[in-house]
Amino acid sequence: MEDEPRPGRPVTACGDVNIFKVLVSLSNDRRKTCEEICTEISMSRTSVFRVLTNKLNKKKKFSKWVPHLLTDEQKESRVSFSRNFLRRFQTEQNDFLGRIIIGDETWVYSWDPETKRQSAK
């Protein structure tokens, strides 16, 4: 989905120079917050967030900025697992489905943070 062209001043904060600045800042420490990056490179927090999410395709996970897209190896692995599951389903039918356990890669700990700063860690 993309915005339609509209009149007015074009967005310059997300230009190549600023994207490079954010990338360099992030390469030094992937755990930096938008606030820390914007202070370091003199950009607004909103512009830094827009560069990270829209231009560099990063997401904040577990207090780190990580690529949002899968690598080719991860994609191939998922296709391989899916094909294997389909083959097994074709031969074993519902018996196979009853043995599948699903989950995600999230680890949940029982910890009640005292401050916002602690909850980001």
UniProtKB/TrEMBL annotation:
Q: Which InterPro entries match?
A: RNaseH_sf, Transposase-MT_Hybrid
Alphabetized GO MF terms: nucleic acid binding
Q: Where are the transmembrane segments?
A: none
Superkingdom of origin organism: Eukaryota
In terms of Gene3D superfamilies, this protein maps to: Ribonuclease H-like superfamily/Ribonuclease H
PANTHER family cross-referenced by the UniProt entry:
MARINER MOS1 TRANSPOSASE-LIKE PROTEIN
What is the name listed in the Swiss-Prot or TrEMBL entry for this protein? Histone-lysine N-methyltransferase SETMAR
Q: What is the lineage of its organism?
A: Eukaryota, Metazoa, Spiralia, Lophotrochozoa, Mollusca
